[in-house]
Amino acid sequence: VQLQASGGGLVQAGGSLRLSCAASGSFPSRFTMGWYRQAPGKQREMVATITSGGMTNYVDSVKGRFTISRDNAKNTVVLQMSSLKPKDTAVYYCNLQAFYGTSWFGQGTQVTVSS
Length: 115
Known about the structure:
- The chain has strands spanning about 1-5, 10, 15-25, 30-40, 45-50, 55-60, 65-70, 75-80, 90-100, 105, 110-115.
- By secondary structure, the protein is mainly β.
- Strands 2, 4, 5, 6, 9, 10 and 11 form a 7-stranded mixed beta sheet that branches. A 4-stranded antiparallel beta sheet has the order 1-3-8-7, with no helix packed on it.
């Protein structure tokens, strides 16, 4: 499984960024896609996930600011981030988790929010 992420960058506080990720390779038809992030000196945390059926889950700190969506036909997932804060600065990783539990991460994309 390969996960190709794009869309990171530098933005001022209050701005927006859009992260995209495309999955390719061999994986089951039922899987959850999502985004995780890791800030310097901190553990990786789940940011948002979306199931094949469209059920979403967000970490409390991004609710109301981030929106996750997916295109099942293209095996892509998008994280639309708005009202960004400096504490959102991290490396963001695309994730795919099969229904049987195996999980893959992409290479990561840097998001930096300046104050």
